[in-house]
Amino acid sequence: MSELAQAPGMTHSMPLRVYYEDTDAAGIVYYANYLKFAERGRTEMMRGLGFAHSRIAEETDVLFTVRRCSADYRAAARLDDALSVDTRIAEIGAATLSLDQQIRRNGETIVALDVLVACVGRDSRPRRVPRSLRVALMHPAPIKPPIVQKTP
C-alpha cells in the first residue's frame, strides 16, 4: 500500500445549532468557535466509524493532533442558526490525515477548512495511522443505528 492514499470521499455530516455562548457581542459566531465546531465534526465522524478517541488511545496508544489548519471565513453565522459540519477525508498518509471540512448554513459553505491531523504517541512522536482505522476510512461501512432492545 502506498504511503499516501486517496480516501474514497465519504462525507460525514453533523448538525449543529448556534447557541448564545458561541457568539460575540455583535451576535455573530466568534471566529475561533468555528475551529471547535470542526473538531466536533471530526470527532463525531471517527465515533460514527467506531473509533472514539478514547478507544484509539487506549488500544493503540495513538493520539491525534492538528498539525496545520487553514480557514476561509466566507460568511458569519448568527445566534440560533442551524449549521452542518461536513467532514471528508481527502488523503491518508503514513502518519497523517488530510481533511476537508465545510461548515454550512442552508447548504451554503460559510467556512471552509483544510486540516492536517497527525498521529502521535503519548511521547508526542509520530505514529502510523492505526491499520484498523485506515481500513475503516478507506472502505467505510454504512453507519448503523444502535440496536434498541425492549425491556421485559
Give a structural overview.
It is a single chain. The chain is an alpha+beta fold and 152 residues long. It starts with a strand and ends in a 14-residue tail after the last helix. Strands 1, 2, 3, 4, 5 and 6 form a six-stranded antiparallel β-sheet that branches. It has three helices and six strands. The relative contact order is 0.22. 21% of the residues lie in helices and 36% in strands. The protein is elongated, with a radius of gyration of 17 Å.
User: Hey, roughly how much beta strand do the residues contain?
Assistant: 35-45%
Structural class: alpha+beta
The value of Rg in angstroms is 17 Å
Task: Give a quick account of the main beta sheet: strands, pairing sense, barrel closure.
Answer: 6 strands, antiparallel
Order of helical and strand elements: EEHHEEEEH
The count of strands amounts to 6
Terminal-residue CA separation: 50 Å
Helical run tally: 3
* Shape annotation: elongated
**Average pLDDT value?**
88
Helix content: 10-25%
Detail the poorly predicted runs.
144-152
Keywords:
152 residues, alpha+beta, 6-stranded antiparallel beta sheet, 6 strands, 21% helix, elongated, disordered C terminus
